[in-house]
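Support case: iron/sulfur cluster complex. Customer-provided input:
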Amino acid sequence: MSRPKVAFFDFTSCEGCQLTVVDTLQTHPELLDAVEIVQFREAMTEKGEDYQIAFVEGSCARKSDEERLARIRQQAQIVVALGACAHLGGINAIRNRLPLEAVVNCVYNENGDWSETHPYGRPRLSDRLINVEPTAKPIEAIITVDAILPGCPIDREEFARVTRQLLQGSQPRVPDYPLCVECKFKENVCLFQRGQVCLGPVIRAGCGAICPTYGESCEGCRGPISNPNMDSMQSVLAEAGLTADDLLSRFSMFGTYQMMKLE
Ligand code: SF4
Ligand code: SF4
Ligand code: SF4
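Agent response - structure generated as follows:
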Protein backbone atom coordinates (compact mmCIF):
# COMPACT_ATOMS: atom_id res chain seq x y z
CA MET A 1 0.00 0.00 0.00
CA SER A 2 1.41 3.42 -0.89
CA ARG A 3 2.09 5.77 1.97
CA PRO A 4 0.98 9.43 1.96
CA LYS A 5 3.67 11.67 0.55
CA VAL A 6 4.77 14.50 2.81
CA ALA A 7 6.90 17.57 2.12
CA PHE A 8 8.40 20.20 4.42
CA PHE A 9 9.05 23.76 3.25
CA ASP A 10 10.81 26.70 4.85
CA PHE A 11 10.16 30.38 4.31
CA THR A 12 11.44 33.20 6.55
CA SER A 13 12.29 31.36 9.76
CA CYS A 14 15.08 30.20 12.00
CA GLU A 15 14.38 26.56 11.04
CA GLY A 16 13.92 25.68 14.71
CA CYS A 17 10.54 24.10 14.02
CA GLN A 18 12.00 21.86 11.31
CA LEU A 19 14.74 20.85 13.73
CA THR A 20 12.03 19.96 16.23
CA VAL A 21 10.43 17.74 13.57
CA VAL A 22 13.76 15.97 12.95
CA ASP A 23 14.07 15.48 16.69
CA THR A 24 10.51 14.15 16.97
CA LEU A 25 11.00 11.66 14.14
CA GLN A 26 13.85 10.08 16.12
CA THR A 27 11.58 9.38 19.08
CA HIS A 28 8.52 8.56 16.92
CA PRO A 29 9.90 6.27 14.17
CA GLU A 30 6.36 4.97 13.58
CA LEU A 31 5.64 8.29 11.84
CA LEU A 32 8.51 7.67 9.44
CA ASP A 33 7.05 4.24 8.65
CA ALA A 34 3.61 5.73 8.01
CA VAL A 35 4.60 8.38 5.44
CA GLU A 36 6.99 8.91 2.58
CA ILE A 37 8.89 12.18 2.96
CA VAL A 38 9.64 13.50 -0.52
CA GLN A 39 11.09 16.93 0.32
CA PHE A 40 12.67 18.22 3.52
CA ARG A 41 15.65 20.52 2.94
CA GLU A 42 16.70 20.39 6.57
CA ALA A 43 17.12 16.61 6.46
CA MET A 44 17.57 15.34 2.89
CA THR A 45 18.71 16.40 -0.59
CA GLU A 46 15.85 14.96 -2.70
CA LYS A 47 13.19 17.43 -3.80
CA GLY A 48 10.08 15.53 -4.85
CA GLU A 49 7.23 17.71 -6.09
CA ASP A 50 4.52 15.07 -5.75
CA TYR A 51 3.05 15.28 -2.23
CA GLN A 52 -0.29 15.26 -0.45
CA ILE A 53 0.62 16.89 2.87
CA ALA A 54 2.74 20.06 3.09
CA PHE A 55 4.16 21.37 6.34
CA VAL A 56 5.16 25.01 5.89
CA GLU A 57 7.54 26.73 8.29
CA GLY A 58 8.22 30.47 8.21
CA SER A 59 6.40 33.65 7.37
CA CYS A 60 5.81 35.11 3.95
CA ALA A 61 8.27 37.99 3.63
CA ARG A 62 9.28 38.21 -0.04
CA LYS A 63 7.34 38.76 -3.24
CA SER A 64 8.49 35.37 -4.56
CA ASP A 65 7.11 33.68 -1.41
CA GLU A 66 3.51 34.31 -2.46
CA GLU A 67 3.99 32.51 -5.75
CA ARG A 68 5.77 29.63 -4.08
CA LEU A 69 3.03 29.31 -1.46
CA ALA A 70 0.38 29.27 -4.20
CA ARG A 71 2.24 26.41 -5.94
CA ILE A 72 2.40 24.43 -2.68
CA ARG A 73 -1.31 25.01 -2.10
CA GLN A 74 -2.13 23.87 -5.60
CA GLN A 75 -0.23 20.59 -5.14
CA ALA A 76 -1.05 19.68 -1.52
CA GLN A 77 -4.37 18.33 -0.31
CA ILE A 78 -3.48 19.43 3.22
CA VAL A 79 -1.35 22.42 4.23
CA VAL A 80 -0.17 22.75 7.83
CA ALA A 81 1.32 25.98 9.25
CA LEU A 82 4.36 24.81 11.20
CA GLY A 83 5.22 27.14 14.08
CA ALA A 84 4.58 30.74 15.05
CA CYS A 85 6.28 32.31 12.01
CA ALA A 86 3.93 30.52 9.62
CA HIS A 87 0.91 30.61 11.94
CA LEU A 88 1.13 34.23 13.16
CA GLY A 89 3.83 36.03 11.16
CA GLY A 90 5.67 35.79 14.46
CA ILE A 91 8.93 37.49 15.33
CA ASN A 92 9.55 38.41 11.68
CA ALA A 93 6.54 40.73 11.76
CA ILE A 94 8.20 43.01 14.34
CA ARG A 95 9.87 44.66 11.38
CA ASN A 96 6.48 45.63 9.93
CA ARG A 97 6.46 48.65 12.24
CA LEU A 98 9.59 50.17 10.71
CA PRO A 99 10.73 51.13 7.21
CA LEU A 100 12.91 48.38 5.76
CA GLU A 101 15.96 50.68 5.68
CA ALA A 102 15.66 51.31 9.42
CA VAL A 103 15.50 47.55 10.04
CA VAL A 104 18.60 46.95 7.90
CA ASN A 105 20.46 49.69 9.75
CA CYS A 106 19.39 48.27 13.08
CA VAL A 107 20.63 44.76 12.19
CA TYR A 108 23.72 45.47 10.05
CA ASN A 109 24.61 49.05 11.01
CA GLU A 110 27.52 50.34 8.92
CA ASN A 111 28.01 46.84 7.49
CA GLY A 112 24.73 47.02 5.58
CA ASP A 113 26.48 46.26 2.29
CA TRP A 114 29.01 43.84 3.74
CA SER A 115 28.56 41.22 1.06
CA GLU A 116 29.77 43.62 -1.68
CA THR A 117 33.29 42.59 -0.81
CA HIS A 118 32.39 39.03 0.13
CA PRO A 119 34.91 36.56 -1.34
CA TYR A 120 32.14 34.53 -3.00
CA GLY A 121 30.89 37.64 -4.78
CA ARG A 122 27.32 37.53 -3.47
CA PRO A 123 25.07 40.42 -4.52
CA ARG A 124 25.01 43.45 -2.28
CA LEU A 125 22.47 43.34 0.55
CA SER A 126 20.65 46.35 -0.90
CA ASP A 127 20.20 44.47 -4.19
CA ARG A 128 18.92 41.37 -2.45
CA LEU A 129 16.40 43.44 -0.48
CA ILE A 130 14.62 44.52 -3.66
CA ASN A 131 12.58 41.32 -3.44
CA VAL A 132 11.62 41.85 0.21
CA GLU A 133 8.02 42.80 1.02
CA PRO A 134 7.46 45.62 3.55
CA THR A 135 5.21 43.30 5.58
CA ALA A 136 6.03 39.85 6.94
CA LYS A 137 2.81 37.83 7.03
CA PRO A 138 1.46 34.52 8.29
CA ILE A 139 0.97 32.07 5.44
CA GLU A 140 -2.80 32.18 5.98
CA ALA A 141 -2.72 35.76 4.64
CA ILE A 142 -1.79 34.22 1.27
CA ILE A 143 -3.26 30.71 1.12
CA THR A 144 -5.85 28.58 2.91
CA VAL A 145 -4.40 26.60 5.79
CA ASP A 146 -5.96 23.32 6.93
CA ALA A 147 -4.26 22.94 10.31
CA ILE A 148 -1.85 24.75 12.60
CA LEU A 149 1.00 23.63 14.79
CA PRO A 150 1.49 26.64 17.06
CA GLY A 151 4.51 27.61 19.12
CA CYS A 152 8.07 28.86 18.85
CA PRO A 153 9.22 26.24 18.37
CA ILE A 154 6.41 23.71 17.90
CA ASP A 155 5.76 21.13 20.60
CA ARG A 156 7.16 17.67 19.75
CA GLU A 157 4.24 15.64 21.07
CA GLU A 158 1.74 17.97 19.43
CA PHE A 159 3.49 17.46 16.08
CA ALA A 160 3.26 13.67 16.52
CA ARG A 161 -0.41 13.84 17.53
CA VAL A 162 -1.47 16.23 14.77
CA THR A 163 0.37 14.15 12.16
CA ARG A 164 -1.36 10.97 13.37
CA GLN A 165 -4.75 12.71 13.19
CA LEU A 166 -4.03 13.88 9.63
CA LEU A 167 -3.06 10.35 8.60
CA GLN A 168 -6.27 9.02 10.15
CA GLY A 169 -8.25 11.51 8.10
CA SER A 170 -9.54 13.50 11.07
CA GLN A 171 -9.34 17.26 11.56
CA PRO A 172 -6.43 17.93 13.91
CA ARG A 173 -7.31 19.81 17.04
CA VAL A 174 -5.01 21.96 19.13
CA PRO A 175 -6.16 23.41 22.46
CA ASP A 176 -8.31 26.52 22.20
CA TYR A 177 -8.52 27.39 25.88
CA PRO A 178 -6.28 29.73 27.88
CA LEU A 179 -2.79 28.84 29.01
CA CYS A 180 -3.83 29.72 32.59
CA VAL A 181 -5.72 26.38 32.70
CA GLU A 182 -2.48 24.43 32.26
CA CYS A 183 -0.64 26.80 34.58
CA LYS A 184 -3.19 26.19 37.35
CA PHE A 185 -2.85 22.42 36.89
CA LYS A 186 0.89 22.90 37.51
CA GLU A 187 0.00 24.72 40.74
CA ASN A 188 2.22 27.67 39.79
CA VAL A 189 1.98 30.92 41.70
CA CYS A 190 0.50 33.39 39.22
CA LEU A 191 3.17 35.78 37.95
CA PHE A 192 0.77 38.73 38.23
CA GLN A 193 1.09 38.26 41.97
CA ARG A 194 4.82 38.85 41.53
CA GLY A 195 4.31 42.05 39.55
CA GLN A 196 4.98 40.47 36.14
CA VAL A 197 2.82 40.76 33.03
CA CYS A 198 1.77 37.41 31.58
CA LEU A 199 -0.34 36.75 28.47
CA GLY A 200 -1.65 33.45 29.83
CA PRO A 201 -5.32 34.49 30.11
CA VAL A 202 -5.64 35.07 26.36
CA ILE A 203 -3.06 32.68 24.85
CA ARG A 204 -3.66 29.18 23.52
CA ALA A 205 -2.65 26.38 25.89
CA GLY A 206 -0.74 23.30 24.76
CA CYS A 207 2.84 23.98 25.79
CA GLY A 208 2.23 22.87 29.38
CA ALA A 209 2.63 26.50 30.52
CA ILE A 210 6.36 25.95 30.28
CA CYS A 211 7.39 29.61 30.63
CA PRO A 212 5.41 30.44 33.81
CA THR A 213 6.47 27.09 35.25
CA TYR A 214 10.08 28.29 35.01
CA GLY A 215 9.23 31.77 36.30
CA GLU A 216 9.03 33.55 32.93
CA SER A 217 5.82 35.14 31.79
CA CYS A 218 4.11 33.98 28.62
CA GLU A 219 4.89 36.05 25.50
CA GLY A 220 2.20 34.45 23.39
CA CYS A 221 4.12 32.26 20.94
CA ARG A 222 1.08 29.97 20.51
CA GLY A 223 -1.15 32.86 19.52
CA PRO A 224 -4.44 34.07 20.97
CA ILE A 225 -7.36 31.74 21.65
CA SER A 226 -10.30 32.24 19.32
CA ASN A 227 -12.53 33.73 22.01
CA PRO A 228 -10.36 35.64 24.49
CA ASN A 229 -12.21 37.05 27.49
CA MET A 230 -10.89 40.59 27.27
CA ASP A 231 -13.13 41.86 30.09
CA SER A 232 -11.61 39.34 32.44
CA MET A 233 -8.13 40.18 31.16
CA GLN A 234 -8.72 43.84 31.90
CA SER A 235 -9.87 43.04 35.45
CA VAL A 236 -6.68 41.02 36.02
CA LEU A 237 -4.61 43.96 34.75
CA ALA A 238 -6.53 46.48 36.86
CA GLU A 239 -6.04 44.35 40.01
CA ALA A 240 -2.31 44.29 39.31
CA GLY A 241 -2.22 48.07 38.70
CA LEU A 242 -1.36 47.55 35.02
CA THR A 243 -2.86 48.79 31.76
CA ALA A 244 -3.62 47.29 28.35
CA ASP A 245 -0.43 48.96 27.04
CA ASP A 246 1.62 46.81 29.41
CA LEU A 247 0.00 43.78 27.82
CA LEU A 248 0.34 44.96 24.22
CA SER A 249 4.06 45.61 24.41
CA ARG A 250 4.48 41.97 25.47
CA PHE A 251 2.07 40.73 22.80
CA SER A 252 4.12 42.45 20.08
CA MET A 253 6.86 39.80 20.29
CA PHE A 254 4.79 37.28 18.32
CA GLY A 255 1.57 39.18 17.60
CA THR A 256 2.68 42.35 15.78
CA TYR A 257 0.96 41.29 12.55
CA GLN A 258 -2.35 40.72 14.38
CA MET A 259 -2.01 43.98 16.35
CA MET A 260 -1.40 46.02 13.22
CA LYS A 261 -4.46 44.52 11.58
CA LEU A 262 -6.58 45.80 14.47
CA GLU A 263 -5.14 49.35 14.41
S1 SF4 B 1 8.36 29.62 15.07
FE1 SF4 B 1 10.22 30.05 16.25
S2 SF4 B 1 11.41 28.16 16.19
FE2 SF4 B 1 9.85 28.04 14.56
S3 SF4 B 1 10.89 28.82 12.74
FE3 SF4 B 1 9.83 30.56 13.66
S4 SF4 B 1 11.37 31.52 15.01
FE4 SF4 B 1 12.11 29.48 14.51
S1 SF4 C 1 1.30 32.99 35.48
FE1 SF4 C 1 0.35 33.52 33.54
S2 SF4 C 1 -0.43 31.59 32.76
FE2 SF4 C 1 -0.05 31.31 34.93
S3 SF4 C 1 -2.00 31.74 35.90
FE3 SF4 C 1 -0.82 33.65 35.91
S4 SF4 C 1 -1.48 34.71 34.05
FE4 SF4 C 1 -2.10 32.58 33.84
S1 SF4 D 1 4.17 29.82 27.92
FE1 SF4 D 1 3.55 31.23 26.29
S2 SF4 D 1 5.48 31.92 25.37
FE2 SF4 D 1 5.94 30.11 26.62
S3 SF4 D 1 5.85 28.39 25.19
FE3 SF4 D 1 3.81 28.59 26.12
S4 SF4 D 1 2.65 29.92 24.74
FE4 SF4 D 1 4.80 30.14 24.21
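The domain at 5-93+135-167 is CATH 3.40.50.700 (Rossmann fold).

Case will auto-close in a few days if no follow-up is received.
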